[in-house]
Amino acid sequence: MLAVSEQEFELTDKDFKFIQWFMHKRVGIYLADTKRAMVYGRVSRQLRRRGLTRFKEYRALIENDEQECVHFINTLTTNKTQFFREIHHFEFLEKVVVEGWRSLGNTEIKIWSAGCSTGEEPYSIAATLWHAGAFEFAKSVKIFATDLDTQVLEHAKRGVYPEEALATIPKQYLRQCFMRGKEAQSGKIKVANRLQQFIQFQPINLIEPWSLPEQFDLIACRNVMIYFDKPTQEQILRRFHARLKPGGVLFLGHSEGLGGCSSLFHHLGQTIYVKM
Ligand SMILES: C[S@@+](CC[C@H](N)C(=O)[O-])C[C@H]1O[C@@H](n2cnc3c(N)ncnc32)[C@H](O)[C@@H]1O
């Protein structure tokens, strides 16, 4: 790491503390001191873009301009994702959850992918439902896909990805759910319209009120709360619990758990939980 005096941009201890406080207050994300180099790298790009050299000047912008503020938050979030990430969730969805809905006669299915990043998660859910035949027996299927980061949501809505994304998509979904680009679009894949029509993308900050009118059969909130502190995680888990139908299913990310909310759900293993 460069010594402060050798750095191109000025980010003082006070600036870094402000960023830690600001991210926690606005989005619940706790940036540990060890993230300072990452923060410096990402903030530098914004300073360069605006022709500034000191974070202090940029701070004035983000405090007075909501759009710049959203842009700044987008810069500091981690959006890593992939199709069928943590594949056991999709296997469970197909073999157990959808079969349960079918046998119980649940024909109005509502799913929430909370913290969906660039869309691979909700599209993987839709492809799984397609393959499991859920669109045949259900009268209505709605998948809400939300994220704080407005830029990733734009990407998600397009549903276009580099061809390398195919590497994690199991063969059985390829023909029906994804199309290869041709000519100007070669080297890219696109999610089939027949899946896209079931997904509604919208910006939602999980630590603020949720403008979602529904009760859900399944909520997937994977690899999102890992960045939040414990009280924030528990508060959101209680709100998820209230938003699940009886017997509703919750998927968390591989290193996430229920903490103090374990009495609210049955744990079925592999970060799969059922509302009690
Ligand atoms: C690492 S990605 C996980 C994507 C996907 N769920 C998966 O597991 O592959 C985390 C996502 O959570 C979003 N996020 C972080 N804090 C959030 C908040 N307070 N409200 C909503 N989304 C948030 C980020 O913008 C990012 O896109």
TrEMBL record:
UniProt KW Cell membrane keyword: no
Species this protein is from: Vibrio ostreae
PANTHER family: CHEMOTAXIS PROTEIN METHYLTRANSFERASE
Residues covered by the CheR-type methyltransferase domain: 4-276
Keywords, ordered alphabetically: Methyltransferase, S-adenosyl-L-methionine, Transferase
Lineage per the UniProt record: Bacteria, Pseudomonadati, Pseudomonadota, Gammaproteobacteria, Vibrionales
Keyword Transferase: yes
GO MF, any single term: S-adenosylmethionine-dependent methyltransferase activity
Function of the molecule: Methylation of the membrane-bound methyl-accepting chemotaxis proteins (MCP) to form gamma-glutamyl methyl ester residues in MCP.
Known EC number: 2.1.1.80
BP terms from Gene Ontology: methylation
Annotated protein name in UniProt: Chemotaxis protein methyltransferase
Catalysed reaction, written as an equation: L-glutamyl-[protein] + S-adenosyl-L-methionine = [protein]-L-glutamate 5-O-methyl ester + S-adenosyl-L-homocysteine
Major enzyme class: transferase
Cited InterPro entries: Bact_Chemotaxis_MeTrfase, Chemotaxis_MeTrfase_CheR, CheR_C, CheR_MeTrfase, CheR_N
